[in-house]
Amino acid sequence: MKGFIIPENYDEWHYCITVECGLALTPEYISERISSLNDDKDYYTQQFVKLYGREYLNRVLGWFQQAQQPL
Predict the structure, then answer these.
(1) Mean pLDDT calculated for residue range 6-25
(2) How far apart are the first and last CA of the chain?
(3) How far apart are CA 29 and CA 32, in angstroms?
(4) Is the alpha carbon torsion for 24, 15, 8, 49 positive or negative?
(5) What is d(CA 42, CA 51) in angstroms, rounded to the nearest whole number?
(6) Backbone φ and ψ of 45, nearest 5°
(7) If you ran DSSP here, which 8-state letter would residue 2 be given?
(8) Interior CA angle at 30 toward 53 and 26, to 5°?
(9) Is the pLDDT confidence value at 9 over 80?
(10) Distance (Å, rounded) from C-alpha 26 to C-alpha 19?
(11) According to the model, what pLDDT value does residue 4 have?
(12) What radius of gyration do the chain's Cα atoms show?
């Protein structure tokens, strides 16, 4: 999966988060990120939208929600 810059699907995003970034997708972390990304007043969410756009933000939110679902 090397070679992509911005994940374009759930598998690429999951790999980026868990392998490239070394983050654990714990229920607490996922919940925090969903809450922050849904907060338009959150500084980092505002910066994310400026860099990647609202459509990509919604995709990332969907991926966090997908990761939140039990296997």
Answers:
(1) 95
(2) 22
(3) 5
(4) positive
(5) 14
(6) -65, -40
(7) T
(8) 145
(9) yes
(10) 14
(11) 55
(12) 12
Give dist(CA 24, CA 30) in Å, integer: 9
Please tell me the pTM assigned to this model.
Answer: 0.88
Q: What is the DSSP string of 3-70?
A: T-SS--SHHHHHHIIIIIS-----HHHHHHHHHHHT-TT-HHHHHHHHHH-HHHHHHHHHHHHHHHS-
Please give the average per-residue pLDDT across 32-53, as a whole number. Answer: 97
Longest CA span, the chain: 34
Amino acid at 61: L
Q: What are phi and psi of 49, to 5 degrees?
A: -65, -40
Q: Where are the domains of the chain?
A: 27-71
